[in-house]
Amino acid sequence: MPRTRQLRDWLDQLFPRQPGEAPLPCAPASSDASFRRYFRLDLPDGTTRIIMDAPPEYEDCRPFIRIASLFHEAGVHVPEVLAADLEQGFLLLSDLGRTTYLDVLDARTAPALYRDANAALIALQCASRPGVLPVYDRALLQRELDLFPDWYIARHLGLTLDASQMADLRAVFAALLDNNLAQPQVFVHRDYHSRNLMLIGEAPTPAHSLTTANPGVLDFQDVVYGPITYDPVSLYRDAYIAWEEAQELDFVIRYWEAARAAGLPVRADFDAFYRDYEWMGAQRQLKVLGIFARLYHRDGKDGYLKDMPRVMAYLRRTARRYAELRPLARLLDRLENRPHETGLTF
Fold first, then answer.
1. How does DSSP classify residue 33?
2. Fewer CB within 10 Å: C terminus or N terminus of the chain?
3. Residue 300 structural domain
4. Residues 105 and 239 in one domain
């Protein structure tokens, strides 16, 4: 049976129709980098619901349900699961609206939006405890890093590293992972950025702050227990919007101050925290470049290609800044036939 027919039959079970009555309006709401799809259902009372379509041969809805409950207990605003058919891979969810952070982020709105994003993230991190979620261990972090040579270099650029280049890359990977794994461990969303944060209520103005329900948080089913800087760097070195570093520093300092005030185990010295943040960011940026390349070459999704230069700019900045990462900076220059650039070294 076609997937759309399965979905219609399930909706008819949830919302029975009278003979001759038209089906409830149902339109695509969004898609993501997985096999999941989302639809918005219009109900007769004027409210809306979201349907998650997660084909069970590719996706498992159970982690989403479990993590939604975990986040809710932590005080994070996530969709409510209203109905589920795990065998077919369908969920009926409350609707957090149509407006992402990315839709409204600018210099005027960012301070209030990010203040609320920090508060939600810190609430989640404060609820952290070991033994509840999968560990973001070395093997998983390494598998993510391997996406860069496998998909970005070999498939996207069509290049092959020689033995010396591969050795340099592996040495940088090892240094990054040593840093990442030495950081304090908390619950990690893994994609805490502007496309997965929803604006609840009206966009903020200088005279009005946001609601306590802001932001709505989506795409959390892959949460793990891992490095404390991972979600902050996902947020402030976002693949979809960039800030001048002076502005980014202001945002990150505000997170760090709030995290310290909440008793989270961030580094007492901000310079040391920012180094951890940048090195965690390098791991994520290498992964993201590999994922975006894979989405294009394997899955035929070209929408992420335009965001690659932004992610590469973050990676280059960090690689040039630290002596241990300089071999990565040289490799990136050679891959793109650029003259080698130097930067501040720490």
1. S
2. N
3. 101-335
4. yes
